[in-house]
Amino acid sequence: MSHRLPVLTNTQVRVAVLVAVLAWFLHGLLVPPPGPAALACGLSGLALVLLGATALDGTPAGAWALGAGLAAACATGLLAPATPWVVLVFVGCGLAAGRLGGPVGALLLGAGLTAVLAVILLRGRDSSELWNLVGLCGMYAYIRAARARKAAAESERQRALLAERAHVAREVHDILAHSLSAQLIHLESARLTLAAGRHEEAAALVDRARALAKGGLEETRRAVAALRGDVPPPGEALAAFAEEYRLATGSECALTVTPGPRPLSAEAALAVIRTAQEALTNAGKHAPGADVAITLAHPGDRYELCVTDSGGDGPAAVPGLGSAGGGYGLVGMAERAELIGATLDAGPYGTGFRVRLEGPLSP
Fold first, then answer.
1. What is the DSSP letter of 34?
2. Residue 171 pLDDT > 70, yes or no?
3. Closest CA to 89 of 102, 105, 71
């Protein structure tokens, strides 16, 4: 029967090393015991360093405790230079680098360097002990660099988390905007048809709205799959959107897809799908009765999506208006394009409105 050894965390390893080093200092202080004054200074320094690293950690009082611990270590070195007093200096400066940093940490490092230099000069210690100064500076720099790397990694994690949240928000907006706007059109048409006494037509419109609601749920599931990297081919998705637009509005929706030299990346394919979906939703909302043309071409080593409406019978599309009433439709499309290195142009085109997405095949 095999037994797996427990895996220690980084914090547990650091605590174990700290305890071992301080135990080494305590053993060297007590065996053989120095004079009463040196023993009192050594034990006081140990207590102050532990207090600054635990109960007062991260507080101004903790910085003062570490500083007092360094002073006690210096006094121990002056009274009993044969003891491992310099260990306490290294521990205090290391804690200052890891817990405090900044001007306070640098000040405590200076205090530690001063303590080591004072003991060497005043007690006539061997000049080789000057290497302790180099060791203190190297240890401080290493700990500060490790802390900076950890902060950078945490910042990157937060940035990735915010980017993922923005990604999910765009997906939810696009799905709800498209599905709910189409349902609203059908239900409003059903209401007007009922008022006119055409009950069978109204029932058909309500059935279509129900189908759109069901399709919205399916689209949500597809979006979740897309977030996991499972993106449908753009041609199939565009064909489905075109058919849905025809059924929802009764207008024409021409689709032209030119095969490219290689498939789009998952990010580019998702951008094409969501941009076309949002553009069709905006056309249905802001240009009632408009015919739409969708083209997906691959000029050179790039892809180009154009969704153009004829203007319809209603007011012209307004740049910046979203389909869910929040005003984020075109903004969301532009943000999505920028994230994958593509460009989005949207504005009046002839009598209608055009949305154009262009980007490289290689992200």
1. -
2. no
3. 71
